[in-house]
Amino acid sequence: MNDEELLARMRAIDPARTSDAPQPDIDRLLGATMTADTTFRTSPRTSDRPRRPLLLAAAAAAVLTVGAGITWGVTATRDTPPAAAAPLVLTVQQDTGGGPATACAQLDVTTLRQYTTAFEGTATSVDGDQITLRVDHWYRGEDASTVRLDNTHEGQLESFGQEFTVGQTYLVYAKDGKVPVCYGDAEATPKLRSLYDRAYGQ
To answer: How far is CA 154 from CA 128, 158, 192, in A?
Structure first.
């Protein structure tokens, strides 16, 4: 059997050439082949995906945490008022002469300069024998913002030498924590302020 006879026999048994098999659509197959998308696509790896949203979320959480801490600190500070400084306590000294305040010698610059504490203050409370003054101006001595005058004498308020009224302004001088009854605590007047100014070099 030569080559031509073998080729003819193989064609005879080829199912694609039988009468039942449809003829191939060469034009369609060729067109599909030419227009097919041959772009190679790969899915991005998990490690290559953008991490920016995750980083932004972490940064926002950190800012919120710090902000909450600052807010708490400020709120705690506002809710806790600073402790008030203790007032300076002065004691009104009993008149050694035993006479009324009207019998006291006239106050002058020389006498006033002997005292180491002098200020002008406004009465904020009058509670029995305790008078609380808000210091408006220091002429000499301390730097406290509040002064309390205590009367150790058992008697009427007049034993102070001055009857105090809340809201009224007074001039006070003292030495060694003692306020003399005679003019030691008196209602502030322009004349008395002038005397204090001359005595303490204001």
So the answer is: 11, 11, 29
3-class SS at 174? Answer: strand
Give yes or no for a contact between 141 and 155, defined as CB atoms under 8 angstroms apart.
Answer: no
pLDDT, the chain, mean = 74
**Residue that the structure tokens 């995906």 belong to:** 49
Among the listed residues 196, 201, 202, the one whose alpha carbon sits nearest the alpha carbon of residue 111? 196
Per-residue pLDDT reduced to its tens digit, 76-130: 455 565 566 788 999 987 654 444 444 577 899 999 999 999 999 999 999 988 9
Residue 187's nearest CA partner among 156, 165, 158, 157 is 165
As a whole number of angstroms, the distance between CA 95 and CA 170 comes to 19
Residue 16's CB is within 10 A of a number of other CB atoms, namely 9
Q: Please give the full DSSP string across 28-78, using - where no structure is assigned.
A: HHHHHHHH-------PPPGGGS--HHHHHHHHHHHHHHHHHHHHHHHHHHH
Q: What is the DSSP letter of 25?
A: -
Q: CA–CA distance from 147 to each of 67, 69, 168 (Å)?
A: 42, 39, 14
Are the beta carbons of 95 and 182 closer than 8 angstroms? yes
